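Kindly review this record before class:
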Amino acid sequence: MVRAEGSPGEKVADFAEIQRSHIEAFRAAHADGERARVSQGLVVIPTDRATPDQRAKYQTYVENRTPRTAEPQGPGRMMFAPDLIGTSEQVAEALYADVAFREVREVVAERLGPALGWQPKASPAPPDDAPTTGSNRTTGSS
């Protein structure tokens, strides 16, 4: 949730743009600067394993909540991020298109997922004859 700037009736920036500006202002004022940690709360509904009935129920839920994301709400002019619904690929695409999400350095999969027992799929080892030029992701060196 963010507060819209301006007066009622004025066009406002979208939620993600406002949230990104808040993240930038926070980091500019924080002693850790760009390394300062931020969080982002979004409603994300992955439907990969949902039945058709479940998908329809979730879609109705999102549609009923969407009007609150179209314009500032109440005297405080609060804004809400749109809910994200779709397959994991669709959700990931929407997240990476979100300018505020691109400012977040830690994602659930990095911290919370492993704490709950989730482990990423192992990347296949490169063949022995693979070229060694370019970035080495293991050490971060070139």
In short: The helical segments are 15-29, 52-65, 67-70, 88-97, 112-115. Residues 15-29 form the longest helix (15 residues). The longest strand covers residues 44-46.
